[in-house]
Design goal:
218 residues, 2 domains, endopeptidase fold (from Nostoc punctiforme), 10 strands, six-stranded antiparallel beta sheet
Length: 218
């Protein structure tokens, strides 16, 4: 093969690869601080979604590192980071995850990109140093700790407390209501339903005026 043709084909392949990656619907327009709401496929997940009259039962926060790699940090089993692809693969069949964005962080991105990059770096550091590895809170209590003093977090609680380190207008908890599926929750919590206690849910982000929907993951 002619050497110039060989170089040309390699160059075109690289250009196409970069174009395809940039337009991959799974990664297009994902920024640090974005919230991804996910419909999981399990019975308790459906009860969570039904309680809020939404389809979403799980949430995570997108992190983008200095090299542009996207991960999603979540409280599921424990607080951890997974790839965006792994996170989205759990989407319930025939359902779709959605991406929400903070108006405040969007304004920072638009008006002061240098400051946004600093926030991005700080978010990655904060997750690694303060949140990674914390245990999951099966009791769904807003301020719940292990005997050793480690905070236990459920998914939407983690999202709120993580982002509140950076937001001027804080995400605030509200009184939780489990009345739509009371009998199920009585069994789930062994009679200790946190009815009326402060908390939040994935659906509360969708209803909040602090965020707007950017896209649906098809």
């Amino acid at each position: 093969m002619n050497i110039f043709r060989h170089v040309f084909l390699i160059s075109m392949a690289l250009i196409y690869s970069c174009y395809a990656t940039a337009n991959d619907p799974k990664i297009l327009e994902v920024r640090t601080g974005d919230i991804i709401l996910l419909p999981l496929d399990c019975f308790s997940c459906r009860m969570i979604a039904d309680e809020e009259e939404t389809k979403f039962s799980h949430s995570g926060v997108a992190l983008v590192d200095a090299a542009g790699k996207i991960s999603v940090v979540e409280a599921l089993g424990k607080v951890r980071a997974v790839t965006l692809e792994e996170f989205l693969q759990r989407t319930a069949k025939s359902q779709h995850a959605i991406l929400l964005r903070s108006h405040e962080l969007d304004q920072l991105y638009t008006l002061d990109f240098v400051a946004f990059k600093e926030f991005q770096s700080a978010a990655n550091i904060l997750f690694t140093k303060a949140f990674a590895g914390l245990p999951f809170d099966h009791d769904y209590l807003w301020d719940n700790y292990t005997p050793a003093g480690l905070q236990k977090l459920y998914c939407s609680e983690f999202v709120a407390k993580f982002l509140n380190h950076f937001l001027r207008v804080k995400i605030t908890p509200t009184a939780m209501d489990f009345s739509r599926n009371w009998d199920f929750w009585m069994r789930y919590f062994n009679g200790n339903v946190p009815q009326g206690k402060l908390g939040n849910s994935p659906g509360s982000f969708k209803d909040s005026k602090l965020f707007y929907q950017v896209r649906i993951f098809q």
